[in-house]
Structure formats: structure tokens, C-alpha cells
Amino acid sequence: MTSPDGSRQGRAGTRALPEDLDRDLMAVGLEQDPTAFRRLFADLAPRLKFFLIKGGMIESAAEDVLQETMMKVWRKAGLFDSSKASASTWVYTIARNVRIDRLRKENRPEPDPEDPCYVSEAPETGEQAVSRKQDRERIQKAMALLPPEQMTIIKMSFFDEKSHGEIAETLDIPLGTVKSRIRLAFGKIRAELEVL
Amino acid sequence: MSIRHHIGDDTLMAYVNGTLAESLSVVVATHLAICPKCRKSAELMEDMAGLLLMETETASLSAAEEAMAETIPVGVLQEDRILDRPKKTQGYSNTGVPMPLADRMPAALDDIPWRTLIPGISHYPLPRTGSSKEKGTLRLLKIAPGKTMPEHSHTGQELTLILRGSYIDDLGRFQAGDLADLDSDTLHQPVADTAEDCICLIATNAPLKFSGFFSRLLQPVFGI
Fold first, then answer.
1. Where exactly are the transmembrane stretches of this chain (chain A) (predicted)?
2. CATH number of the domain at B1-224, out of 3.40.190.10, 3.40.50.1860, 2.60.120.10, 3.20.20.80?
């Protein structure tokens, strides 16, 4: 639900539902809707900034990355496909790529589905094809079951722009422990996703 | 192609969040192009990042940042909007290998100007585009049937993607599409085990360490 001035209403707190974000991003893509963009911006920009600053970026650099990311969100929204990713995931990958470009002055090597050598997945059976919403809920449940020491490392790798070596130094644990905790965490998440 | 050896979750996670060295990222991206299973894992990791992003705290925005919400929609020209995925016009594989690798190859896999290292083993170093302060190497390696790579371990990480043929080492048999994700503590000595040359893409983020005396003499030859 949105009020005439375009802000969200009817919910306590400021957190938007994933479905709201998806809908707004699609409205930006299909109709260049500036009101939907303002809502997306209000939901995402303060979180993106938090993660950029926490990752060790100075204020002015974070402002540049935020600007470039949100410009790309506006320009590329037409490519967003809500059956493939949620809006927050899509925006995360854009912010990440902007950060990598700045850091290394290079394009991140990525597979390209148009490539004749690309191997597509076998078509999903009805059982496997669950909705994005169910997927999100299942992943969230599985993540909630991770022990704190595994979750800490996963959050540090996503948001602190730290290599596994740097995480090991920061936490004062061996590199092998960082790697094994990541492997354990994903092993557990995959196992949970199979039974949920 | 049935792939049995996949990217380790720790390596894939570093690729997903952008902290993996460029040389290693090229090997990961090339494997992802042919491995739906690993692509699914990468998607799971991105989904998690998206969920965690919405759970983070918020930072307060400066006035200039607040203004972006208004200025971006009016400031970006309609013609600058991207409505289709950019199509690559060239480079689509007559090289016979997936794009992330094909982009860095001087010629098709059949026409690589191999340089002999020792009899039966030749290589071709590939250019890297990223910042030069990153250590690490990216190259193609060709092992003739029955030949053995000198036994070595690594000071850092080594990723090997088999492009053609196969090899066997202590960790098992690696065939086309398989990826060996080796840490610094692993000592291995691959042997090409079919009648075909074994061609691999190898990236390291630190020099190899050869363990035998004669092998150590090779260190300058391998030059890595």
C-alpha cells in the first residue's frame, strides 16, 4: 500500500517487504516510474551506504559508489527479472560490481548465457520450481540456523570487502578455519534447503 | 559433460563477493559457464547477500545523497537506459572455450602457440587485465599422454580447470569440465592418463613450490 505522496504506509517500521521492492523495481523498469524509484531509494540507499562504510570506505567514496549504483538501477531496471532474483539481490550485485570496477579497474569475469559454449540447466521439474518467495523464506530459515561463528564470517565476506586472509587476520584465527567455516555453513544451508 | 569436481564453497563465496584474485576469478567464471550446479550455488550466495542487505542497519544519508532520489530520474536521458542485455558482437567461440577464457585467448584452442617447458609439457601464459599489484598467474598447460607434472605444492591457492583430456593425481581423476581447487597444503603430481593431450587452464595467486630436488631446478623454467 502506498499513500498519495508515494511513501509506503500501513506497516510498522521502515522495512519494506521483498514483494514491494520487486514491484517497485519492475515499475521503474517498465514505466520509468520516478515515485517507485524514490521508494526504492529510500529503502535501499541507507542500507547500501551502511554496508559501504562498514566495508571501510570513506564517506566521499561511498557517496560515489552509491550514486553510480543507483544510476545503474535506474538505467538497467528493464533487465530485472523477478523470477530469477529478488530486487535486493539484484541491487546487491550491481553495487558489488561497481565496487569491483573501482577497486581493480577491471571487468569482473562472468559467464554469459549467450555464449555458444554455455551449458544450460536441464529444465526444472514441477517439484523443483518453487516460487521466489518460497525460496527466500527457505533460505532465510536455513540462515537462521547457522552458528554465530559461521554467520559472522559470511557477513564479513559479503559486506566488509575482506578476503578470507584478511578475515583470518581480523578474527585472529587460521585461514584454514575461515575456509572450513564457510564450507560448513554452506553444507548446512544446502542440507536445510533439501529438507525444508 | 558430467562434472564431478566442483568449485569449493569458500572459493565461490570469494568470487561472489568480489574478493577473489582476478586470475582465479577467470577460472571460476569459465567453470560456471559450463556448470549449472555451481551457478546454482552462486545464486544461493547472492540471494543470501540480498537478504542480509535488507537486514543491515541503515546509515543516515547526506543532503547530497538524499537529493539523488530526485535527480537521478530526471538526470538520466531516456536513450541512456539499457533495455536489452548488451550483445557481444565478436569473440563468440570459434575458440572452443567459454567466454571468460575466450576473451583472453590469442587464438582458438587448436592454434595456441605452445611453449615447451620440458619434453611433453608446454604452456601458454595468458594476459591479466587487472591491477598489477595482484600476484598470481593465469596460463594454459598441455600435458602429453602419459607425462607427469613435476610434484609440487603451492604457497597460495591453485585452481585448475580441465578443458580437454584428463589427468589423475592423489585426489582422483579429473576430466573435461572438472575443477581442482587446491590449497597451499596440497602436494600433487598430475599424470595425463588418456591417449589425448590433457589441456588445462591453471590460475594461482602465488608461486608454485616444487618439492623434489630436480623439480626445484624447474622453478625458474616455470617462472611463476
1. none
2. 2.60.120.10
